[in-house]
Structure formats: structure tokens, C-alpha cells
């Protein structure tokens, strides 16, 4: 018995040493490239889910592949023993201008969008999504219109969808991009310029807060979720969307190919259970959690694979990284095909690449 326990202990020690060597090597490589590029890294290995710092295992490394001339660093991806996945080290806040170039898809552009059937179909998709994911959970308010805030609203496309569903709602958009906000304002939405936690907003003002594909981009999702919760009235609801590592695609491509990394811009990747833990820490209850297909992650996955074997120009043509903007028929068809693929993944393995979560204030006070 003692011999068996001794064997297990020796084996565990060896595995831990091997893991830490692999982590050190991957981190050192990232640091060397960062030094050559004068790129600032943030060495914060705190797991925002369990609060530990050292229970980590390197599971891969991810590199920018969507935009040229940002950085060539292979960022180590680590997984805590609690299951949480994050970048360590990650880009410093001072590098945001470099990793979100002016051509970043979410910033949009000033050109008026042509009124094409492709864009109308994409807009209908946004309305349909919110009709399913938000409307059934909205609280009843008497004597005034619903107040709904979109954090990271960009040009206000989801606020437009809310107005289509609930024309009398008061729609507010918060974003750090003034050019995107001015387009949202032109469409009649109220705008708040800046970052959550830094701008002054009346606490518990909103009946609903939506935040779609933002929390994975922030350094401290725990603090971010707290700030969002503070804006919500006691009976209000929050709708969040984020990638999920529960999908089969993550398990297959987690070493660095998975498009859901959106490298190096997604700093935290959640599962349904890690997100529920995070929500609990912020004094929120998860009322509903469901995955949905995201074709874009597959386009990005195929783009990484294509770049391994093909010249960049050809990879960019077949799997355009900015496909998410969806202006051309080809983009629309590619997204439709990859969304069908992700739907099939959901059918066969229970989880697609995206996750939407409905949260309310926790009935009991947070511990
Ligand atoms: Zn952890």
C-alpha cells in the first residue's frame, strides 16, 4: 500500500515538474518575442474563478491570425485545476491600441451600409436572437418605459433590434469608441462614452443590461460583472453572451487552432459551470444558460489551419477573418455553412461554440 502511495506521489511530482517546465518554456518564448517587439505583457496568473494562482497547466499557445502587423507573440493558454481557461501572460492594457487596430471589425466604419438583402437577413437574425434570449425574461414595469443598456454596443445594432421588438423601450448604449457611438446616437439611442466602472451611471437604473461578447475581452471579469450588477434594478435581468469551452470544437482544437480564442483578444474562456461560479461571486443567479451556434469561430478555426499550408492571401480569400461583418453574399453563405456545422456539433455533443446566459440578482446576499 505504502509502495503504491509512494509511486503515486513520485508520479504526481514528476507530472507537476513537467507541467511547470512546459509553462516556463512557453512563457519564456512569449517574453522573448515581446521584448523584440517592445510589446508590454501583463503577468497576472490569478484565476478569477477559484482565486488560486498556481494550480495551472499550459494547454496551448495562440497567435494573432486575423489582422496583420499587430503582434507575432504566441500567448500561452493555461487551464486552472478548477477548469477556468485564460491567457498568461496576456497583453497589457497599454497594448489595446495595437491588438484592436483601427480596422477591427467591431469598430465598423463611416460608410453608410448598402440596403442589401444580406444585411437585412443579418439584422433579422439579431431580432430573432433577442426575441428568444431577452424578451421572455424582461421584468414588468409600470408607469414608464423599460430602460435597456447594451454594454459594448458599437454602432447600436442590437439596440436597433430591441427597438424593433419593443418600440417604446428607452435604449442606452455604452462603448469606448466615439465614432461607433455617434452612429448609435444618430439612430436615436442614448449614448454613454467610456468604460464601465469609470463612467458615472445611476446605480440600479436599468431593467435589463445586455453585454454580448465583451466579458471574455476584459482583464477582470469578476470586477466587470460586479459593475454590471450594480446598474441593474432589483427585479432586472442581465443577458450575457460569450464563447464556451464546453463545445467539442474547443476540446479538439484547444492547443491553439480554436477560433473561439480570437487571439490575443479573448483573455478568459468560460464553461457553463465556471460562469455560474463567477455570477455567484458577483451576487447573481444564473436563471438560464444555453449554447448556440457561432459560424465565425469555425471560419477563424479554418483560417488558422489554412495559414499553416497556404499563402496568407489565399487563406484570407477562402476564410476571410472579417467575415463577421457579413457584407458580401460569400460571407453570408460561409457563415451560414459554418453555423450549420456548429449546429450539428451541438446536436451531437450538446454544446455549440457560443453561450447565452440570463442572470438576476441573487435572492440571498452574496457570501
Ligand atoms: Zn481556478
TrEMBL record:
Keywords: Methyltransferase, Transferase
GO MF term set: methyltransferase activity
Organism for this UniProt entry: Ferrovibrio terrae
Annotated GO biological process: methylation
InterPro entries the UniProt entry points to: SAM-dependent_MTases_sf (IPR029063)
Name listed for the protein in its UniProt record: Class I SAM-dependent methyltransferase
Stored Gene3D superfamilies: Vaccinia Virus protein VP39
A Pfam short name: Methyltransf_23
